[in-house]
Specification:
Chain A: Possesses two activities: a DNA synthesis (polymerase) and an exonucleolytic activity that degrades single-stranded DNA in the 3' to 5' direction. Has a template-primer preference which is characteristic of a replicative DNA polymerase. The complex is a heterodimer of chains A (about 475) and B (about 1100). With about 475 residues, chain A is α/β, with parallel strands linked by helices. Chain A is about 25% helix and about 20% strand. Chain A folds into 3 domains: about 60 residues, no CATH class; about 280 residues, Purple Acid Phosphatase, chain A, domain 2 (4-Layer Sandwich); about 70 residues, OB fold (Dihydrolipoamide Acetyltransferase, E2P) (Beta Barrel). Chain A contains 13 helices and 19 strands. In chain A, helix 1 runs parallel beside helix 3. The chains are: A alpha/beta (about 475), B alpha+beta (about 1100). The interface between A and B is large, with 63 and 51 residues.
């Protein structure tokens, strides 16, 4: 049985399991293999792994699940895409669930954010916590927040930790400005502190976030559409609304102006919850129209397949999709979404991911951590997710709070740190549109295509349905479908 | 009564011993610390006040029920005159009123009146009217659902008494409750009943007082900063009062609201479990209720689907070991299923939610089909054991004996009665044509119907002669087949001639016989029915049946004698919690409450700690005020004066010397293991004398946090017993006051049935063996530590008979005096229903503890209890010495005391009469209250030959792994006709394994870590990856717990045709699990290996 593998191995080509299994089932696997190798070599030998896609391409195998993208192609011009994936963690999950992974995960977070912080002029002279000495001088330290409490007199106490030790930082409530700032701190974010060491405490005089420098706005010669939380398969999925949206994208719906914008659209970004999924919450089966996950994705393929094929679609999973629940989530597995995968204009990436859309760096994150942020910081709520995004950007972390509702996988590297400041931050999850331009960054939350659910009614969430944000040459427009 | 005086005399004797021992000054106090509780009124005054209320309570008690007293007292206290507009004083009175009322409702036994209500306030509606707000706290739980619900009703009564308006919630406040209930269940813990959002809306919108409370959990809601709600956190106490109280106990609340003529509670009818009359037809329709199998738990088999054919058949009656939620099942059924042992809990469809199984063998057992095709009734455990491995199908599970009182207690309409011998006999006795001279000797057989089995021709003759329906034995489950099937059967029966038996050729018709429950044999290709059954069938199906939906009705048109519905009510059930009898051990289990920090290792072993020269621990000490000597005694060891306990603090003690001296004091040579505690949880941190630990270790007994020694068992009721079954000889019982049997005959033989005295208990053999060791410990303690005489001198468990114990239930603070009268092989504690009720327990699988009374008197001290909220629960703060049935939980008042179920009940059960409508025919405890009959003559209608027949241990406990448990569960599901196997497999996956795995995956990705050395927990791992103490950190949620059920789930999914939805859920879970536990790198490298 290993003849096939050996054959490819001699040529320096690895075979994916599935590709191997499919090859093996062919009438004459050895001949097919030889043909493949010849073909791959002809291409310049740039494949090192033989995947089932390559196999598909070569043999033009009809995928039984395949749903042909029915969308029209505009032949009058051929689009040039400058699309690049900068960060995608799919197939890069290196955790094995051991406690050591947890240590490296938080070390990675601390180190990355500390590096960002220490570039700030105010924190250049920061010292390790273990080296702090009492005295009148102002010291600066960088640490990860362990805990936040209020004293009896309503001062704020911050337990701060670095890799050398820990210390309690106190923020006096008479220092109004700083106290207000401290109200927005959350556990497990990394901050810098200026203060005076008094006994076992540091009395804070200033607090620093890694922060966001104002970025230069880039010229945008195209339009991009942002959606999320489509929830296909749910009884409350608004199919009509979604179909109108697709018709608009294809140039078949809307006012003259709207059609003009549609013609300019190169990218469609989908920030998770493409389908409603199965078993996400107890009793979900009673609220599902399609109770089969594969069929949900097939339906998704039918709906997205109607979109004209020269629009590139970028999809990440949300907490409803068939992926692991811990973040970062790998891309929606092909296994469940074969038909969706057969659409050639769709890119499947992890949650979160960073891509470049013709030069515009776009950070896509589903937004699970908003639940924790809204719970932890007074004044933040689901209906004002732009404020949450602003906080996350300042903290340079997409899901800083550990141990609450957002499950975090202890990956060896913390991929949820915002290493690069993006031009666009696109999120979903809360089902309520939001937009803000913050220091040159477009903060976009793209609402939903799902009507209000019983669950949302209990939690007092009024969704904005079918309201699609479009970034049209740098300006935000919202079209309702 | 002499019995109570005898108990009190004996109690006093033990007190005297304890007083003498304590007076030596070797303990924390110089006298025993458990006062004798008097009656309810004084308990209430002592617990919550106000001063002088006891007298008023006693006054009112003369002609009012306890609930009425509570409401009246509340109104009286609250409406006392106060200065104009002194809201503060009015609030104080309302607060006092509700606490006193709650204390009365809970018999002054539980901690809820003190700790379950934080405060009461008078607040303002948005229309400026005033209303009453009650702030509940977590320990309201200990009041139980009914009392919690009634305290809300009391608050409304108070509100009216002090002329306040109703609480008018705004929509946001109502929705806040809805959200809190959801959050509570998702973030904190499950409620006993999960209300739908609309149910919460209904309750929150209509309760006329504000049910609010202290924040109990660190979980915040999204509807924040409501003007009238002080906290943004979950109000656990309020939710308990509303959901497990008002909503769950809606029928009871409604009952009292009507009784008190309180208006504005009619909306509760929407919650009432009892089916209402169908308005259009004026006929009650009772639907199958599947609530009890909404959750199916791995390893706990479903025994029958809701109202499914072949499930348990309802039979009315009470045996001497049923009532108070314990229900009878034939021991052959228990033996056959193996998952039902004496005391195993079942979740049931009706009349309540759960029960405890006890064996009763005067009811019908199961009908089974064997692998060889034979169908037979299984009427004894021996047969059940013999045929168990040959059973192919359990066609019928047998009877469930349910007391009338269970329907009364649950306010559930009566369900049609199964046609049974005792009913049949009564129909003859009441027949006009039956002669007065009782030719059939029915006055005897009416209680001994098992001995009266006429053959079929006789049965027909009796029916014709006295115009009564056919004997139940020859009445088959005709209603479970169609008229067409009966006609087919009839045709088939006519193909053969009835000789000594009826031999038919095998055909599909056999299945009809099986469903009808007609016993028969299969021999090769022949089906053979015995003479009597064949005779009955042929003569019943006397002619072809006309088309009808009602098979029994169709039969009655052709049958010469009347045929009754054999099983008009089937009851669905599943196995709940297994029975239990076990000594109580804390973990790790200490022998003595003496703090040794971490010096004793993880086992807290004092000899190990003593290897160090000296140790430093936080400990309280006492000082002599005159000679300043410090010690751990209440009397100064040097001058004998009373010492004063000082503030606890870190002190260095020479443990080795202390241990050595203690060992010498009680002359015990060095023991390898005497376990202490890491630290004291009490505020004084005053330790126990080490000598006690040494003697406990010597006798292999362990102490609980309050220094008593406990043994826990499932509670079961018992009103009558025989000397033989409790293993005590007649002589001894006569000494203890059992001179006559329950029929008034002199006690002479060990099989006579005796009426149990209300404070006598039958403990498990396991418990007895432990108490023997406790008794030896107490004797050692008396002799070697206090220098007194040994008291118990027991060697065998028999020697315990006649000794006193204290029973105590969790969440209560009052122990009840009891006396050991015998032993049971079952894993349970049998006692009089009054005894359990006095502890506020019923018998649907509640469990609680017994202590040897002298142990509790000598060793218990309040000073060992933690000072935190709830710390005084499950501690014997008082001892009730005499049970007055009027002053115990009124659940026990519903106990039937009839020796026969009245004909009326049988007949009216077919109209779904409400239990209260037939109460005039019923004799129960309620009717005997306040008379001497409350203590004697409580009869039973169904005898049983043994109170511990059937398995002693539920199979669930015997099977080691979950995989095998589930395996047996599914095998059983396949075997029982009334169970859908696929449904069970899906149910286990859906309600147990999948949620468990999902929860654990989530928990894994947000878990804490723990130090293996000092046990400190970190919310998030420190950056250094080490504990501050330098110890190793480990995960608190292991990979093992996440994948625990994955293999079984996959296995089940692959073997049974389950819903694809579940299949996919399992697959996706597996994908998620692999992604968390398998590095993509290792997957890639394994591919390398593969290449």
């Amino acid at each position: 049985m290993n003849e096939i593998i050996a054959k490819f191995a001699r040529e320096g080509i690895l075979i994916e399991d599935e590709a191997y299994l499919r090859l093996k089932e062919m009438d004459d696997p050895m001949t097919a293999s030889s043909e493949l190798i010849v073909s791959i070599r002809k291409e310049g030998g740039k494949f090192t792994i033989l995947t089932s896609e390559v196999l598909d391409d070569f043999f033009e195998i009809e995928n039984p699940h395949e749903i042909k993208a029915g969308g029209p192609v505009k032949d009058d011009f051929k689009r040039e895409f400058d699309f690049r994936v900068i960060q995608d963690t799919s197939n890069k999950s290196y955790t094995s669930g051991e406690i050591q992974d947890m240590v490296s995960y938080f070390s990675s977070r601390f180190t990355k954010l500390k590096n960002l912080l220490s570039k700030r002029p105010e924190l250049r002279s920061h010292v390790p916590i273990a080296d702090l000495r009492s005295g009148g001088d102002v010291v600066s330290i960088i640490g990860i927040v362990n805990d936040l409490r209020s004293t009896k007199n309503n001062h704020k106490m911050i337990e701060l930790e670095d890799d050398t030790g820990e210390i309690t930082v106190i923020v006096h409530n008479e220092n109004h400005e700083l106290f207000e700032k401290s109200e927005k701190l959350v556990r497990d974010e990394v901050i810098g502190v200026h203060g005076v060491k008094k006994g076992r405490l540091v009395v804070a005089s200033d607090i620093f976030h890694p922060g966001v420098p104002r970025i230069q706005e880039k010229e945008m010669k195209f339009s991009a559409v942002f959606i999320s939380d489509v929830h296909i398969g749910s009884q409350t999925f608004l199919e009509d609304s979604f179909r109108r949206f697709v018709r608009w994208l294809n140039g078949d719906e809307g006012s003259e102006e709207q059609r003009e914008v549609a013609a300019d659209v190169k990218y469609l970004v989908v920030a998770g919850d493409i389908v409603d999924g199965i078993g996400i919450y107890p009793g979900q089966e009673r609220e599902l129209l399609i109770k089969d996950i594969t069929e949900q994705y097939e339906e998704a393929a039918r709906l997205f397949g109607d979109i004209q094929r020269d629009i590139k679609i970028i999809m990440i999973p949300g907490n409803h999709d068939a992926s692991r629940i811990a973040e970062p989530q790998p891309a929606i597995p092909e296994e469940y979404a074969k038909s969706l995968y057969s659409l050639k204009n769709v890119e499947f990436l992890s949650n979160p991911s960073l891509v470049s859309l013709d030069g515009l760096k776009t950070l896509i994150y589903h937004g699970r951590s908003f639940d924790d942020m809204a719970m932890s910081i007074n004044g933040l709520s689901h209906d004002k997710s732009h404020l949450i995004m602003e906080e996350l950007l300042e903290k340079r972390h997409l899901a800083p709070i550990y141990g609450e509702r957002t499950p975090l996988a202890s990956e060896i590297e913390d991929h949820l740190v915002i290493d690069d400041v993006p031009d666009i931050l696109h999120t979903g999850h809360v089902h309520i549109n939001a937009y803000k331009k913050y220091r040159g960054v477009h903060l976009i939350n793209s609402g939903t295509f799902q009507a209000q659910t019983e669950f949302q009614k209990i939690y007092n969430i009024v969704p904005t349905c079918g309201q699609v944000p479009v970034l049209h040459r740098g300006a935000l427009k919202v079209f309702e479908f | 009564m002499e019995y109570f005086q005898e108990l009190e005399r004996e109690t006093e004797r033990l007190y005297e011993i304890a007083r003498r021992a304590r007076s030596k000054g070797l303990d924390v106090s110089t006298s025993p610390e458990i006062p004798l509780a008097k009656d309810l009124a004084e308990r209430v005054e002592g617990l919550v006040g106000p001063e002088g209320i006891a007298e008023r309570i006693k006054e009112l008690e003369n002609d009012k029920s306890r609930e009425e007293v509570a409401f009246q007292i509340a109104a009286e206290i609250a409406s006392q005159p106060v200065a104009d507009d002194d809201i503060g004083e009015r609030e104080r009175l309302a607060d006092q009123a509700i606490r006193t009322a709650l204390a009365i409702l809970t018999e002054g036994v539980v901690a809820a009146p003190l700790e379950g209500i934080a405060r009461v306030r008078i607040k303002e509606n948005f229309d400026r009217t005033r209303y009453l707000a009650v702030y509940f706290a977590g320990p309201i739980r200990s009041a139980g659902g009914t009392a919690a619900a009634l305290s809300v009703l009391v608050a409304d009564y108070i509100r009216l008494a002090i002329k306040l308006d109703r609480y008018k919630p705004i929509e946001r406040e109502i929705e806040r409750y809805v959200e809190e209930v959801e959050l509570y269940e998702s973030e904190v813990t499950n409620l006993q009943y999960s209300p739908k959002p609309d149910e919460v809306r209904l309750a929150a919108g209509h309760i006329p007082v504000e049910v609010t409370g202290e924040p109990t959990d660190k979980v915040e809601v999204s509807r924040r900063d409501l003007e009238r709600v002080e906290t943004n956190n979950i109000r656990g106490g309020a939710l308990l009062a509303m959901v497990e109280g008002v909503i769950q106990k809606a029928p009871k609340v409604l009952k009292y609201a009507k009784q008190l003529k309180l208006e504005g509670w009619d909306w509760l009818e929407k919650f009432s479990k009892a089916p209402r009359k169908d308005e259009s037809e004026d006929k009650v329709v009772v639907k199958a209720d599947s609530k009890y199998i909404e959750d199916i738990i791995g390893g706990r088999p479903v025994l029958a689907y809701p109202s499914e054919k072949g499930a348990f058949r309802l039979r009315y009656g009470r045996s001497r070991n049923t009532g108070l939620a314990a229900m009878g099942v034939h021991p052959a059924t228990m033996e056959l299923l193996q998952f039902l042992a004496v005391g195993t809990q079942m979740k049931i469809e009706r009349p309540g939610k759960g029960n405890c199984v006890v064996p009763v063998d005067t009811i019908d057992g199961p009908i089974v089909k064997l692998k060889n095709g034979d169908v037979l009734r299984v009427e004894d455990t021996e047969t059940a054991r013999k045929i168990r491995s040959d059973v192919q199908e359990i066609l019928f599970l047998g009877d469930m004996l349910v007391a009338f009182g269970e329907f009364l207690r649950n306010n559930h309409v009566l369900m049609p009665a199964g046609w049974c011998e005792e009913w049949w006999i009564q129909t003859i006795m009441s027949s006009e044509t039956y002669p007065d001279d009782d030719p059939l000797n029915l006055s005897y057989y009416s209680h001994n119907w098992m001995e009266f089995i006429p053959n079929a021709p006789e049965a027909f003759k009796i029916s014709r002669e006295y115009d009564v329906p056919l004997h139940p034995r020859y009445t088959y489950f005709y209603h479970d087949v169609t008229v067409e099937e009966l006609n087919i059967l009839r045709k088939w029966l006519k193909t053969a001639e009835l000789g000594d038996e009826l031999a038919l050729s095998l055909g599909p018709e056999k299945r009809i016989l099986e469903v009808l429950g007609v016993p028969h044999r299969q021999k090769g290709s022949r089906v053979i029915i015995g003479y009597d059954d064949a005779y009955a069938l042929i003569n019943t199906l006397a002619g072809p049946l006309e088309k009808s939906d009602d098979s029994v009705d169709a039969i009655n048109r052709v049958s010469p004698v009347r045929i009754m519905k054999k099983a008009p009510t089937y009851i669905g059930s599943r196995v709940g919690r297994p029975e239990k009898t076990k000594e109580r051990k804390m973990r790790p289990a200490p022998h003595v409450l003496f703090p040794i920090g971490k010096y004793g290792g993880s086992r807290r072993n004092i000899p190990d700690a003593a290897k160090k020269e000296s140790i430093t621990v936080e400990i309280g000490r006492a000082t002599c005020p005159s000679c300043r000597v410090s010690s751990m005694q209440s009397k100064c060891p040097s001058c004998g004066s009373r010492t004063v306990i000082g503030e606890p603090g870190k002190r260095t003690i020479n443990l080795a010397a202390l241990l050595k001296r203690a060992s010498e004091n009680v002359s015990v040579r060095k023991l390898d293991e005497v376990k202490g505690v890491e630290g004291m949880i009490s505020s004084d941190k005053f330790p126990e004398p080490l000598e006690k630990g040494i003697l406990r270790a010597k006798n292999e007994v362990y102490t609980f946090k309050d220094a008593t020694i406990r043994h826990d068992s499932t509670d079961l009721p018992l009103t009558h017993f025989t000397p033989a079954e409790v293993g005590v000889d007649v002589e001894r019982l006569r000494e203890l006051g059992y001179t006559e049997d329950c029929y008034g005959r002199e006690l002479e033989s060990s099989d006579q049935i005796l009426e149990l005295k209300v404070q006598d208990v039958v403990i498990s053999e396991n418990c007895a063996d432990y108490l023997v060791r406790v008794a030896n410990f107490v004797d050692d303690l008396l002799e070697r530590f206090y220098g007194l005489e040994r008291f118990y001198n027991v060697k065998r468990r028999d020697d315990l008979v006649g000794h006193l114990i204290a029973g105590l239930a969790p969440h209560t603070s009052a122990a009840v005096l009891g006396r050991i009268i015998g032993f049971t092989e079952a894993s349970a504690c049998y006692a009089h229903p009054y005894f359990h009720s006095a502890k506020r327990r019923n018998c649907d699988s509640d469990e609680d503890s017994v202590m040897l009374l002298l142990d509790a008197l000598l060793n218990f001290s309040k000073s060992y209890l933690p000072s935190t909220r709830g710390g005084s629960m499950d501690a014997p703060l008082v001892l009730s010495t005499r049970i007055d049935p009027e002053e115990i939980d009124d659940e026990s008042h519903n106990i039937d005391t009839m020796d026969m179920i009245p004909l009326d009940v049988y007949e009216r059960s077919f109209e779904h009469a409400k239990p209260t409508e037939v109460l005039d025919k019923i004799d129960n405890v309620e009717k005997r209250l306040g008379t001497p009959e409350q203590y004697q003559g409580l009869m039973f209608s169904h005898n049983t030959s043994s109170i511990h027949a059937g398995p002693r241990v539920c199979l669930y406990k015997l099977i080691p792994s979950m995989k095998e448990k589930v395996e047996s569960q599914i095998t059983l599901a396949e075997m029982i006709r009334a169970v859908d196997q696929k449904g069970v497999v899906e149910g286990v996956l859906m309600s147990h394994f999948l949620p468990d795995m999902m929860g654990n995956i989530r928990a894994f990705s947000r878990q804490k870590v723990r130090c293996t050395r000092c046990n400190k927990k970190y919310r998030r791992i420190p950056l250094t990856g080490e504990c501050k103490c330098g110890g190793n950190l480990v995960l608190t949620v292991s990979k093992g717990s996440v994948i625990k059920y994955l293999e079984i789930s996959k296995d089940l999914a692959s073997r049974y045709p389950i819903d694809p939805y579940l299949m996919q859920r399992i697959e996706i879970l597996e994908y998620g699990v692999n992604s968390l536990f398998e590095s993509d790198r290792s997957r890639q490298s394994s591919l390398d290996v593969f290449l």
